[in-house]
Amino acid sequence: MGSMQHIELFLSTVSDEFRSYRDALSTVLKRPNVDIHVQEDFIPTGTETLDKLDGYITRCDAVIHLAGDMTGAWAGMATLQALRARYGDLARRLPPLEDSLDSGDPPLSYTQWEAYLAVYHRKPLVIAVPAPGTPRDAKYRVEADQHASQQAHLARLRALGRYPEIDFRNSDQLALQILRSSILDLLVRAEVVSALDDFKSLHEVSRSLSSESERLRSAQRDRRMDMAKLFEQISGCLVSVSGEIRAGRVPHGKCSELFAYAGRLPDKIRKELGVSAHVVPQSL
Fold this sequence. Notes:
- This protein is of the alpha/beta class.
- Helices cover about 55% and strands about 10% of the residues.
- The protein has 13 helices and five strands.
- The protein has a five-stranded parallel β-sheet with strand order 2-1-3-4-5, sandwiched between helices.
- Helix 2 runs parallel beside helix 6 and helix 12 (about 220-245) runs antiparallel to helix 13.
- The radius of gyration is 21 Å and the shape is globular.
- The relative contact order is 0.13.
């Protein structure tokens, strides 16, 4: 493979609700030539947050938007006016936002604007929403006005032709489904990830773990059953990928599962079994 293309992704969510999910997803997606941006990473420039958001999203290759119950901070009217002055066609291109741009009512948050700017700049936008009962982070609060604003936000996105395509219940499920989305297509087309490399890494992990069967048998029963189910899933995935590779085909249908397992498996093993760092390869 020659020089790899550089990719930039923006992870959009309200930190008080989904910071741990965003951090876990960042760990899965991060590669030497894949940069992950979030709102808190902004370098002070003396400009308003919305202006900074616009600059980041303009240069990003895609935006992943987690839309829960919290809005985050509201964008001020002055920042909206500055944005509208920069883009004279903003209201025409984003008609559901016209009232907010004219009067500030209804108010829109910076996190909501991350999705709208992705639409305006014609960036791939992957929208993920939590299933009922999905755990949230410690600072999560349910407020009626924010929940209503988020529902209206999703309705505006639907009016713009952008719909939630991912429904998740935990961080592992979120990562797996993100890697089944257009994000995987972006990474593969840019040749920044290799299904075969991840296959080899998973094979190394599986082989190393074969010597840990005694630890597995001595683990608590509930954890043992969880791990057994996990390895059954990995086994089926590896068998399928191996067959495709031997036949000279690219295993498109299982690539996303390989990437997700490769990103999440080492920490999962260490947590559940107490396997030392030298047993689980650090290459994943």
